[in-house]
């Protein structure tokens, strides 16, 4: 298994197809949440993913400051169902935050987290900055990490 971090233009057609397929499977199908998954932000983002023989195991999207928020952001975080519980989510987030802080040299990261993951993100230092609200019928909370 290998980790990859690529700008949009560096992704192969197959990698892009597989990333979008898995994101749709998790966020639209698995969560039974019809919404526009391909939102126009991918070309401006970095794509961090773990692959196993071409299969996307874990993924997150790094959005530089100014794309979604004034601050840098992380989104579309997932670990494929059959790979959950093996520590990939922690490693994925650690790698993403490391890139934002050390390569992009950003000190603030804002996320829109599903509320049930508040404790998970909190373990990395994220603090809630909003009340819980519904986004696409799923409880969310805005969170901020400042280093």
TrEMBL record:
Residues 6-147 form the N-acetyltransferase domain. One of its GO terms (molecular function) is glucosamine 6-phosphate N-acetyltransferase activity. Signal peptide: none annotated. Coiled coil: none annotated. Gene3D superfamilies: 3.40.630.30. Keywords: Transferase. PANTHER family: GLUCOSAMINE 6-PHOSPHATE N-ACETYLTRANSFERASE (PTHR13355). This is GNAT family N-acetyltransferase. It comes from Pradoshia eiseniae.
